[in-house]
Amino acid sequence: MAPSEKQYEIIQTKYEGGDKVRTRLNFQGTLEQAKAKATEEAKQNIGVRYAVFAEGSMVADFQAYYRTTITCPKCGEIIPLE
After folding, report:
1. Alpha-carbon distance 77 to 69, whole Å?
2. What stretch of H or E contains 23?
3. Which residues contact 10 (CB under 8 A, 6 or more apart)?
4. DSSP 35-79
5. H or E element: which one contains 34?
6. Distant-in-sequence, close-in-space partners of 69: CB < 8 Å, separation ≥ 6
7. Span 6-38, pLDDT tens digits
């Protein structure tokens, strides 16, 4: 990785009992790596928002969030929905 390339981090946001809980995940990488990781985590944790930030930035470059899932009637696969 080139030293001039931006590093990105992922922040997880959950709502528990009316409280917003933010957690910084142990991840640093490129934007593409962070997008893939955030999407994977969001599919595994329905209802939890994952935002990708450049280090030191307050504005997210990408967010992944799935509200619910459906089950395919033919194959039984569980499909997350945005």
Report:
1. 10
2. strand 19-24
3. 24, 25, 27, 34, 37, 38, 41, 50, 51, 52, 53
4. HHHHHHHHHHSTT-EEEEEETT-SSEEEEE---EEEE-TTT--EE
5. helix 31-44
6. 46, 78, 79, 80, 81
7. 899 999 999 888 899 999 999 999 999 999 999
Q: Both tokens of residue 26?
A: 């142990």
Rounded-to-integer distance, Cα 7 and Cα 4, Å: 9
Going by C-alpha positions, the residue among 20, 2, 9 that lies closest to residue 56 is 9
Say yes or no to pLDDT of 2 above 80. Answer: no
pLDDT at 12: 96
pTM of the entire predicted model: 0.82
Coil, strand or helix: which one is 1?
coil
DSSP 7: P
